Amino acid sequence: MAKCDVCGKGVLFGNNVSHSNRKTNAMWKANVKRVKCKVNGGSKRMHVCTSCLRSGKVERA
């Protein structure tokens, strides 16, 4: 799974814990999109999480 090129957000690992306290492996993926962004006057395809897109840390091309 891809990481955000802006903030570095990626996959988190942990455990799902049931009511009976059994543990199974869990994986939470970041909402990462591949978008065209303006970088140094040109445009470049980058992996960006939606929270960075909404906050305006990245300008779309």
TrEMBL record:
It comes from the Bacteria. One of its GO terms (biological process) is translation. One of its GO terms (cellular component) is ribonucleoprotein complex. Signal peptide: none annotated. GO terms for molecular function: structural constituent of ribosome. InterPro entries: Bacterial_rp_bL28, Ribosomal_bL28, Ribosomal_bL28/bL31-like_sf, Ribosomal_bL28_bact-type, Ribosomal_bL28_sf. Keywords: Ribonucleoprotein, Ribosomal protein. It holds the Pfam family Ribosomal_L28. NCBIfam families: L28. Belongs to the bacterial ribosomal protein bL28 family. This is Large ribosomal subunit protein bL28.
